[in-house]
Specification:
Elements lengths: L3 E7 L2 H12 L10 E3 L1 E2 L22 E2 L7 H9 L5 E8 L3 E2 L9 E7 L4 E6 L2 E4 L6 E5 L5 E5 L5 E7 L7
Antiparallel strand pairs: 1-10, 2-5, 3-4, 5-12, 6-11, 7-10, 7-12, 8-9, 8-11
Length: 170
């Protein structure tokens, strides 16, 4: 079974970049946040679904952040997806950084918003190194396998992550 699959779903990448910039450079978020919660448990806390949450069912983060009601995220983005997604968040990885090696409870969908050739997704066993391009496609990633992400460049990498609950990719 493949661990990273480019799906047929495609997002307007230019619009996603515009909407992401509105959030990342908002005065409330300039405090160096590396994750911005698009979906929460109903809270308007931008960090509500951020961080490591092993063992917590991700379907609790199924509501759009109340501060995003009526925006592109609610009216265009989520209705365009062919999946029910949870815990949607923007993840910013500064240059020369690497996440800890870990496994997630559920697969993830990734959309690369800003990336570079030195940004890699790494599976440990069996070893596999992949670059997810900023091509507007939604990429299905089986993060239930041990993995990490590396940004070996000096530039920022920005991905939109969405969790899937109890799903598989054929």
């Amino acid at each position: 079974m493949r661990r990273i699959v480019r799906t047929e779903a495609k997002i307007d990448l230019d619009q996603l970049r515009i909407e992401t910039a509105k959030l990342l450079w908002d005065d409330q978020l300039k405090q160096g946040a590396s994750q911005v919660s698009i979906q929460t448990d109903g809270s308007d806390d931008w960090g509500n679904s951020a961080g490591s949450r092993p063992g917590v069912s991700e379907n609790i983060w199924d509501k759009i952040n109340p501060l995003l009601k009526g925006t592109w995220w609610e009216t265009d983005f989520f209705p365009s997806l062919p999946w029910k997604v949870y815990r949607t968040r923007i993840m910013v990885m500064e240059g020369r950084r690497c996440y800890s090696i870990h496994k997630d409870d559920n697969p993830r969908l990734h959309i690369a918003i800003t990336t570079n050739n030195q940004a890699r997704f790494i599976f440990t066993s069996p070893p596999e190194i992949t670059h997810i391009p900023a091509d507007g496609h939604v990429w299905w990633v089986d993060t239930r396998n041990e993995h990490t992400a590396l940004n070996g460049s000096m530039d920022v990498r920005v991905h939109l992550l969405m969790s899937l609950v109890n799903t598989t990719q054929d």
